[in-house]
């Protein structure tokens, strides 16, 4: 028995992730909260005091970003002089330090507080460990053939930087009867 409704000819749209759904709402709520807090503090103290706080946060954030960038460049320069890859131990907190500096530069008191928290070394270590565990877990849970394979291949590099020679295998789709010629190996 038919209902008279046409059957859709397009494939079903995949579900949106939670982050993609709630990120714009969270960003809007954060902006409203920042503006509200700035007006409350300006009413309690003065507008000039709030202006000085925002300028001080911008200057401190730029100093922090400059320092973290200089530290990352020194780490890279030392690694190139040694002839190896940059060590992750010296630059583990640089990304979070730069993020903290960026949050200090953004006008607002909540972003300044979060930026200052990211400048504390124990907080940087805790967030770094949590991010690494989460990244590894997501990598293990990902389906084969997705982007996780590229990350796995990037992790399996030789310490001397040499490329391991291999062969590219092209998987044919079912029903694809097109003959393919083998590709020549890549040479450097």
From TrEMBL:
Keywords, comma-separated and alphabetical: Membrane, Transmembrane, Transmembrane helix
Taxonomic superkingdom: Bacteria
PANTHER family: UPF0716 PROTEIN FXSA
Name assigned to this protein: FxsA family membrane protein
Transmembrane helix found in the keyword field: yes
Transmembrane parts of this sequence: 21-38, 44-65, 96-120
Stretches for region Disordered: 154-188
Stretches with biased composition (Basic and acidic residues): 169-188
Database matches in InterPro entries: FxsA (IPR007313)
Organism listed in the record: Streptomyces doebereineriae
Residues spanning the signal sequence: none
């Amino acid at each position: 028995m038919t209902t008279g409704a046409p059957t859709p000819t397009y494939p079903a749209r995949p579900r949106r992730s939670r982050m993609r759904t709630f990120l714009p709402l969270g960003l809007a709520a954060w902006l409203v909260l920042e503006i509200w807090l700035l007006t409350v503090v300006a009413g309690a103290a003065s507008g000039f005091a709030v202006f000085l706080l925002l300028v001080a946060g911008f200057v401190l954030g730029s100093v922090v970003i400059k320092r973290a960038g200089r530290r990352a460049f020194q780490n890279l320069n030392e690694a190139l002089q040694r002839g190896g890859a940059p060590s992750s131990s010296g630059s583990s907190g640089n990304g979070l330090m730069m993020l903290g500096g960026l949050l200090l530069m953004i006008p607002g008191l909540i972003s300044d507080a979060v930026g200052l928290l990211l400048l504390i070394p124990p907080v940087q270590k805790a967030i770094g460990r949590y991010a690494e565990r989460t990244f590894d877990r997501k990598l293990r849970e990902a389906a084969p053939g997705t982007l996780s394979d590229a990350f796995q291949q990037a992790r399996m590099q030789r310490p001397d930087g040499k490329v391991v020679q291999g062969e590219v295998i092209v998987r044919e789709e079912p029903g694809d009867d097109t003959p393919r010629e083998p590709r020549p190996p890549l040479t450097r």
